[in-house]
Amino acid sequence: MRIGVVAPSSRFPEESARRVEALAARVAPDAALHFHPQCFLRHNHFAGTDAARADAFVEFANDPGFDALWFARGGYGACRIAESVLARLGPAARAKAYLGYSDAGFLLAGLYRAGFARVAHGPMPQDVARDGGEAAVARALAWLVRGDRDALDPAIAPGLPHAAFNITVLGHLIGTGLQPDLAGHVLMLEEVSEHMYRTDRAMFHITSNDGVRQAAGIRLGRCSDVQPNDPDFGESEEEVVRHWCARAGIPYLGRCDIGHDAGNRVVPFGPAPQALSGAVAS
Amino acid sequence: MRIGVVAPSSRFPEESARRVEALAARVAPDAALHFHPQCFLRHNHFAGTDAARADAFVEFANDPGFDALWFARGGYGACRIAESVLARLGPAARAKAYLGYSDAGFLLAGLYRAGFARVAHGPMPQDVARDGGEAAVARALAWLVRGDRDALDPAIAPGLPHAAFNITVLGHLIGTGLQPDLAGHVLMLEEVSEHMYRTDRAMFHITSNDGVRQAAGIRLGRCSDVQPNDPDFGESEEEVVRHWCARAGIPYLGRCDIGHDAGNRVVPFGPAPQALSGAVAS
After folding, report:
1. Nearest to B204 among A79, A202, A247 (CB)
2. B115-124 pLDDT, tens digit each
3. B169-209 pLDDT tens trace
4. Which residues, at least 6 apart from B146, have a Cβ–Cβ distance to it below 8 Å?
C-alpha cells in the first residue's frame, strides 16, 4: 500500500512528516508513505509556487505506483491549482483514493465532480501536531490501508451518498466549475475560526444555491474556535444551520462527527457502503 | 425630494441620524429625510428582527411618497431579508432610487437583477461617523437630490453598464437567486478588513463564475484595513485582482474610486449616463 503525500495549500513542516512516518511504522506497517519534496517548499503563503504544487499533485496522482493521494494539510491554496490539476489527470489518477479536508475541499470537490470514485473527507498528516492528533492520523491510515469502518463517521446513512466540506470552502466554490452535483446527498459541514455572523452569511450562501437545495439533507459537525462576535450573535451554530435549512427547504438531519480536531472522522464521498459492515476501500 | 432611510443590516445609532439630518439641512435643504424607527431597533447583531427589517424596507419602498430609499449602514444582515423583501415590492418601489454599499450589496444585487432601474453603490448615513465622512454623506445627497455628476466615480465609462460591490458580499451571492446578470458590465470591487488570502480566495470564487466571466472588465477600488497575513501574502490587492482577471480572461481595467472610506464615489448600476455630462437621476 503506497501512499503519496502532496501539499496543495499552505506550507508543511518537515518535522510533521517525520512524526507521521514514525507513527505509520507503528500503526500501519503495511503503508509506505512518500512525502513529495514539494511539501516542504516555501513560497509566500504556500508550499511552493502554484506550478510546483500543481505539478507535484499531478505527478503523484498520475503515478500508478501509488494507491492513494493524501493531502498533507489545509490552510489556503488548493483553489489556485485546481483548474490546472484537474485538466491533467489521467486514468491512473482515477484509480486511487484521495483524503483530506479543510482547504483540500476545493480539490475534493473538483475530483468528485469529475467522477472520481474514491474521494474522502478526513484527517491529514498535519493533524499529528494537534492534541491527541496521533489518533486522527492513525484513523486516516486505518481507512486508507484497511478501509476500516471504525474510521468512518457513524452518522453515515447506509445507501445514501454523502459529501463533507468546511463551510467556508464550500461557500467559495458555489457557482464555479468545482461545485459537485449534491442532489440526493447528505451534506456534512464543519467550520473553524470564523465569527458566527460569517458562518450565518456562508450558510445563507450555501443554502440559497439551487444545486445545494437538491441535497437529501444537511448534518452539522463541529464549529470550533468561534471568533468573538460583537455584538453577540445570539444564536449557536446549530441554530444558524437549522435556520437556513428551514428557509431553504433542506432537511436538517442532526450532528455528525467531523471538525478541525483530533476526533474528525472519515466521510467517503458518494454512496455509503452497505450497512457500514465491511471494508470501504480495498 | 423625500428620502426614506431603513437599516436592513446592523444596528444604527440614533445620534448618527441626527447628525445626518443636520448636515442635510445645510447641504441639501430640498431633501426631506425620514429615518424609519426600525433603524434604531436592536436585535442581537441586527437593527431589529428579520421581520422588522424586512417590513420597514417594504413599507418605505412601496410608499409612493418617497423618491429614494437610502440604506442607513452596512455590517451584516441584508441577505437574511432579501428574499422576503424582493417578493413584496410593488410598482412604487420600482420608481425610486436605492443607494448603499457594503452589506447593502445583497439587496442592491437582487433589486438590479429584478430590473430596478435606479440602483446605486455609494455612501450611507453611517459614513457621517468617519473622518471626513460629512463629505461622503453630502456626496450621496448631491446624487440623490440633484443627480450631481461630481458625485460619480470618474472611472465610469460613458455608455457601458456598471455595477459595484464589496468583494466578500459579491462572493456570497454568487450562484444564488440574488446574482445579477453582469454580462458586458464594468464590475467595480472594493474590500475592507480582510486578510489578503481571503481576498485572493474570494477573487478565485468571483472570477470562476461563468456569469462574472461575461463582464466587460473589472476595476479595483480601495482595499482598506487589510488584516495581517501570516506568512506575508507577498502580493498586493492589485496583483491579486490582476492575477485572477488574467486567469479568467476578464479584462482588468485599472483602479476606481470606491471603498470603505470618506472618498467613496457613487456608481449607478446599469448604463452610464451619456458622457457623464448631465443629471443622472431626476
Report:
1. A79
2. 999 999 999 9
3. 999 999 999 999 999 999 999 999 999 999 999 999 999 99
4. B28, B279
Helix, strand, coil: what percent of chain A each, to 5?
A: 40, 20, 40
The separation between CA A123 and the C-alpha centre of its own chain, rounded to angstroms, equals: 8
Q: Which of B174, B200, B231 sits opposite A174 (nearest CB)?
A: B174
Rg (CA), chain A: 18
A200: distance to nearest CA of chain B, Å? Answer: 9
Domains delineated in chain A: 2-151 (3.40.50.10740), 161-271 (3.50.30.60)
What strands lie across the sheet with B2-6, from one edge to the other? B32-35, B2-6, B68-71, B97-100, B119-121, B267-268
Residue A272 pLDDT: 75
The β-bridge partners of A164 are A188
Q: Out of A201, A229, A234, whose CB is closest to B79?
A: A201
The closest CB to that of B197, out of A45, A208, A234, belongs to A45
Cβ separation A176–B79 shorter than 8 A: no
Q: Helix crossing, A78-86 with A105-113: angle to 10°?
A: 20
Q: Is A172 on the interface with B (CB under 8 A)?
A: yes
Q: Which of B267, B163, B160 is nearest to B211 (CA)?
A: B163
Amino acid symbol at A56: A
Judge whether B50 is closer than 8 Å to chain A, CB to CB.
no
Spatial separation of the C-alpha atoms in residues B224 and B11, rounded to whole Å: 22
For residues B122 and B143, the answer to whether their CB atoms sit within 8 Å is yes
State the ipTM, two decimals: 0.95
* Chains A, B: CB pairs < 8 Å: 93
| Nearest residue of A to residue B210, measured between CA atoms | A176
pTM, full prediction: 0.95
Q: Distance between CA A86 and CA A163 in Å, rounded?
A: 19
d(CA A124, CA A99): 7
Alpha helix segments (H runs only) across A147-278:
167-171, 196-207, 237-248
Tell me the CB-side half-sphere exposure of residue B150, using CA atoms within 13 A: 7
> Which grid cell is B203?
477573487
Integer CA distances (angstroms), A95 to A5, A89, A112, A118, in order: 16, 11, 13, 8
What would the pLDDT profile of A35-88 be if each residue is shown by its tens digit?
Answer: 999 999 999 999 999 999 999 999 999 999 999 999 999 999 999 999 999 999
Residues of B with Cβ-Cβ distance to A43 under 8 angstroms: 234
Q: Which residues of B touch A200 (CB under 8 A)?
A: 76, 80
Amino acid at A133: G
Asked whether the beta carbons of residue A11 and residue B233 sit closer than 8 angstroms, the reply is no
